[in-house]
Specification:
Elements: E1 12-15, E2 20-21, E3 30-39, E4 45-51, H1 56-66, E5 71-75, E6 85-86, E7 89-92, E8 95-98, E9 101-104, E10 109-117, E11 125-132
Parallel strand pairs: 2-5
Antiparallel strand pairs: 1-3, 3-10, 4-9, 4-11, 5-11, 6-7, 7-8, 8-10
Length: 135
């Protein structure tokens, strides 16, 4: 009796690599950038995007040690922090991320839109995490 098995884990890529920089923007203007999350593994996985906690450096070092998903930062916007997530959209100050959750089949990809609407003068940076289920 021959018995065999193959152990695999979730494999994914994120393009472009962090950080996403919107550069200088005129007040009242909008820019959009697209991040592509690709499933390079043999099984479907679910993802969820959420705002990093205030102590992101502790989470980042923990994630690096455990091989978990890395943070993706968005830069160059202004405004207070809003943590609301409605109908697949995550609003963070002047940033809007959509979709903020979903499922990706093997060898599939999901385009994630990051939109920046410059409202006030100044610089703002938000840090986001992409959590991959079953990694």
């Amino acid at each position: 009796v021959m018995v065999s098995a193959e152990a695999v884990y979730s494999k994914c890529s994120i393009e472009p690599a962090s950080p996403i920089d919107f550069g200088a923007m005129m007040k009242g203007t909008k820019k959009t950038q697209v991040v592509v999350l690709e499933n390079k593994g043999k099984f479907s996985f679910k993802f969820r995007i959420y705002q990093a906690l205030e102590d992101a450096s502790a989470l980042e070092s923990k994630s690096s040690k455990q091989g978990e998903s890395a943070p993706s930062a968005t830069k160059r916007s202004v405004g207070g922090k809003s943590k609301s997530s409605t109908q697949g959209r995550l609003n963070l100050g002047m940033f809007t991320v959509s979709p903020c959750s979903g499922s990706i089949s093997p060898l599939g990809q999901q385009k994630i839109t990051v939109e920046c609407l410059a409202g006030q003068e100044g610089t703002c940076e938000e840090q986001l995490y992409i959590d991959i289920t079953g990694r």
